[in-house]
Design goal:
The chain is of the alpha/beta class. A 7-stranded mixed β-sheet has the order 1-2-3-4-5-7-6. The longest helix has 23 residues. The chain is globular. It starts with 10 loop residues before the first helix and ends with a strand. The C terminus is likely disordered.
Length: about 260
């Protein structure tokens, strides 16, 4: 989201309204406990994503009701280098239980709306490391925790949809994001990273994989080899699609695993 704004409205809503005016059909944001003034709501500490989404002082119900077709959002940011990842990325929150509840709410509220929700996280390869040095080795503890975290999230999404088969024309997916794909290809399969190590270890298989430009030089080369790498790791057929990440000014390439 932008670090500046022109009104006193919550910056998420202000950005969304501007993008709707520009004709955008997709919106990306960080689902977090933060008021318009930038401060958190104390009673939401250690609460799950549904409590954050539906709280009256936060903008997310209004945002989801807007006529975007696609929402991409981070649900519980995985911590950057220097912070540990526990099996949950929000202290005191049961990731499976809380994400399950959010997905069920989305299915019910937006049944037959044609909307699609992609629930993911920030650049995963940084989260595996203790610094922003892209040549640094991954921390084994963080690698194990990331695999468990993504497994819990994917199970929550899959099971929520399985348990609510009545939901029609509303789509919820889980995605993981890798940002050192080119580096992974250069270093070889023994170099621990999201694509070399984590993605293939998550079961059930992750719905989508986002390839971020952060840390790589894919902006200067044909991304097809990286997409092929992801499809091979996932053992799935993947189709390349350019996805503009709204509000960031960057374009990412996503591998759609089907």
């Amino acid at each position: 989201m932008p670090l500046y704004q022109f009104t006193s409205e919550h910056n998420v809503l202000e950005a969304a309204r501007r993008l709707l005016q520009a004709g955008s059909t997709s919106f990306k944001f960080d689902l977090k406990n933060q008021r318009a003034n930038g401060k958190p709501i104390k009673e939401l500490n250690k609460k799950g994503w549904l409590a954050i989404t539906t709280h009256g002082e936060l903008p997310y119900v209004t945002l989801f009701d807007m006529p975007f077709r696609n929402f991409l959002f981070w649900a519980g940011r995985t911590p950057p280098p220097g912070r540990d990842i526990t099996w949950t990325d929000i202290d005191g929150v049961d990731v499976y239980k809380e994400l399950y509840k959010l997905v069920v709410w989305l299915l019910k509220r937006y049944n037959n709306s044609g909307k699609t929700f992609y629930i993911g996280h920030w650049e995963g390869d940084w989260c595996l490391r203790d610094s922003y040095n892209k040549s640094a080795n991954a921390n084994p503890k963080k690698v194990k925790a990331m695999i468990q975290l993504l497994t819990d999230k994917q199970r929550a999404v899959d099971n929520a949809k399985r348990d609510n088969p009545w939901a029609k024309n509303v789509f919820v997916w889980h995605y993981a994001e890798a940002n050192l794909v080119e580096q992974s290809m250069k270093q070889g399969p023994g170099w621990v990273s999201m694509v070399n190590t984590v993605l293939g270890a998550v079961s059930p298989t992750i719905d989508y994989v986002s390839l971020s430009l952060g840390g790589d030089s894919l902006r200067e080369v044909n991304p097809a080899p990286a997409l092929h790498k992801v499809s091979h790791v996932c053992q799935l057929s993947c189709s390349a699609a350019a996805v503009g990440h709204v509000g960031t000014g960057r374009t990412q390439h996503a591998a759609t695993c089907v």
